[in-house]
Amino acid sequence: xxxxxxxxxxxxxxxxxxxxxxxxxxxxxxxxxxxxxxxxxxxxxxxxxxxxxxxxxxxxxxxxxxxxxxxxxxxxxxxxxxxxxxxxxxxxxxxxxxxxxxxxxxxxxxxxxxxxxxxxxxxxxxxxxxxxxxxxxxxxxxxxxxxxxxxxxxxxxxxxxxxxxxxxxxxxxx
Length: 174
What we know:
This protein is α+β, with helices and mostly antiparallel strands and 174 residues long. It has helices at 3-9, 17-32, 38-42, 45-56, 62-78; strands at residues 85-95, 105-110, 115-129, 135-146, 150-152, 162-163, 169-173.
């Protein structure tokens, strides 16, 4: 296991240490081939299948996986002298789904003659970094899915006119 991977996983508490080792191997593979798909990063069918089994494992969730990274970020933060910045951002991850129930609804898209629901999740993150731009890691991540979508106005405008409606949001804090 690479040194950086071990430091990122130190704070993780998996119900089975084999899962921690699997994540370590997967992070190492993905870290060597940043931007690659999972099959390209894993490089063979057995490793790819093991990665997808890991992602589908009911005993693994983002809270367990991110706990180690949050602990490593805290360590880097406490040893960094001077000012440290925490930048917040919310990103939308949209997916095409016939039934948006499990994924959530991001917005309603009004086109020329139709309106459809864009499915996905919202992710709010807090990135810790130095004033020079050196990233120290994530301090927090919150995923949200909405059961009532925000409204996206007419897509015919030059840049899109996004106006969010109010809806009940379900949140999952990590």
